[in-house]
Fold these 2 entries.
Entry 1:
Amino acid sequence: MLKKRGKAGNILTENVIFIILNLVFVSIIILFIFLRMNDSAILEEVYAKQIALMADSAKPRMIFSLNMEEGIEKAKNELGENNLNDIVKINGNLVTVSLRKGKSYSYSFFNNVHVIPNLNKEKDGFYFTVEENER
Amino acid sequence: MNDKTAGSKIISVYWFVILFLVAGAVVFMMSAFYSPKDVTNAESLVLSSKVAECVSSGGYLNEEILTDNSFKTDFLEKCNLNFAVEDFSDWKEKEQYYLEINIHKFDSNIPENIGENVFDFSTGNINLKSAYLLEQKKQTTGRKIDMIVIHATESPNLGSAINELTVNDKNGYKSIHYLIDRSGAVVPGEKKESEVASHTGDSSINQRSIGIELVNLGPNCGIATGVLCDYGNGEKCKEICEDSGNGELVKGIVWEKYTQAQINSLIELVSGIVSRYDIPVNREHIIGHYRVETDASIRTDPGPLFPWEEFMNGIEKEAEGRDFYVIDKSNNQYIVKILALVGKKEKNE
């Protein structure tokens, strides 16, 4: 009888460890999926490319806008409410989007225009004014 | 007992191997789905359009290009383009763009009508052109293709169309390159683009063309019964056309209209083919089946309801900035060839 109890105990321990390892594994996968879905780096790249494409197609005296609500929400936590204007910077023909502290994504465009980014009143997006390039 | 313990350990190992495989698949799918797409093709199209606007307007050549020498030296500035990226010096060196423009006189006596070159300009990273030509060669085929023939299946649905094309051998026609369903879904046909499909009665046309079938009842719209509509339900044709309102009476015959989804998919498909094989975008090279077999009693497809104007305008718009025809004030014709390529130019910090 004692032998039988020992065997039963071993089986239980092994199964518990097996289940715990499975749960940890599945948790890691779910965490990875969640983090990937909400990754700021991806949003930075998406916004930078969208802005560059619109700048390429734009002509002087045009104004175009982009809804960046999701990115701005993330940036509020990382950069603070007072620094939202710095999310999008355009230097020459280079668009830089920064939603994280110390990190950014840059993408260039070929249109020879001066594009000025401005945070909109609702603070859920940017509008961009296109002017002739004085260079 | 030892065998049982060993057996359960082996099963555990297999279990974890399977888990790792599943995890790998999840990681791969997440990376594929949640990765921003490459926009360089879209940029190339925009660049081509901008250059086309600079070179011509409303179908007329900007004649300054031929008379003003500064266009060759300052082409980018004249067309309001800037390829330099000043913030990152290594980008200036690499140059992430390539642009090539050639303007030829239109010469009807020469194959492809490409006559004397009157303007040529190129700038940027020549390596992008090499990579592009290599990619084109991979996609294109051994045979020379300069025609696209549009057909209508004249049958109720995709299944019956495929059945007719591959099994029934109607009039000796057996094969096609693409079919487009009413939903807009593009289905590859029996033949690849590299292969000759017997989609018309003229073998010389088959040799140099790609055939595309659109699922459409054609003039069978009003027919309730008959071989073409008798697929276990003789009312199928009438149901499609009368009940859905997709039929239209033209000269005493009820034809089925094409769906917008079909036309949109056709425009996208044909634009890609035209680009790959450098097919001129005009009605001499993109034709309906009725133009091949001119006996109207044999072939009428794609029929009078096919929106040729919308279709050709759609392709021209998609192909905007590539090869196109212009005239000058003296009505001299020119062919403008534009090659605009964009390489990857991004920076993460």
Note: The longest strand of chain A covers residues 125-132.
Entry 2:
Amino acid sequence: MSAPDQADRPSELSQDPIAARLAALEKLRALAERAAGYLRRSALPAVRLSAALLLAASLAACDRAEDVAEEVPPAQVQPLTQEVATGLPDRPGRYAVQADSVFRDQRGVYQFAWLEPGAGGSQAPRGAYASRLRLAQGDRPELEVPDQGDPVLYLPPSQPVRLVEAGVAGASPTPAPGSSTTYVAPHYPYWAMWYPFPVGGTGYSRPTYYDPPSRTVEPGQRVDGGVASTTPKPFGDRVAGIRTAVSGQAGGTGSGSAVTNKSGAGGKSGVTAPKSGGFSSGRGSVGSSSSS
Amino acid sequence: MAAAPPPDDRTIARAIRKSRLMDAALKKHWLAVLPHLAAEDRVRLWAILVEANGQIQRGKAER
């Protein structure tokens, strides 16, 4: 009797139970295919039927295991290690924010596009990233940069914050000092809509720090309301993310990527810090930790 | 050296039922085709179940 195939050797994948399970299910699937090849010629209809069902069930089991292996639980996202503030206006004041340009990644970094006052349609919007951003309900999307303290993003009830995976938006060239760069809208394949101030909700009129009400959301899910706090949460507590169930490509053309466990080789870190030169120069820098 | 004889169907069936690798539907279908499998496929199936069970046990021990 022949010995088991060499392919059945003890696997280094045992270090990763998800990958090991997937590998074992793949072997079962291959064996099911092989057996179905001769069982479908059996004289017994019940055997032929069982072979067909076995093959279908084996394929389904592999699909389910792949989905589990490719999920990105927010717990695996590396939290920030320092605050992020890039591309913000360099003067106190109120600035219009482009509708539907507000995103928040799994680490709690917001990104949005704002307009210089009086620019109208003649000037390209400017992109900004900020981890210490307060939210408040307003009549229109607007950014307030106070003389002191963290900026405030005013959002009407109709305006969502899109929860996304990666923290790097679409690429834009590093601008020359003092120049502006056209904001490149980020491209993400998956997001969930977060409405911090839904219609009929008790939106805070006073600016506060907000976080989504749940730590994990599904792509396409609608999330209403939020958890308010007078001070920013610790970095680890700001992680709240979107869970994808398909093979992990992060949104955007940046270097961030979703962590996958499929191969058991650990994958890259889920998010990266945005490049500070990616948008027009303005106030702020990566790593600032202004107090409110 | 003579190869170890493959386990009988009863032993393989017990391994299928106890396996943490498969859900109930997959177990049912493997049990249904088991008596009709070729001898070498019985050996392969046994090897997969043993290895998977070993990995599960190792994974538990490491936690």
Note: The two ends of chain A are 75 Å apart (CA to CA).
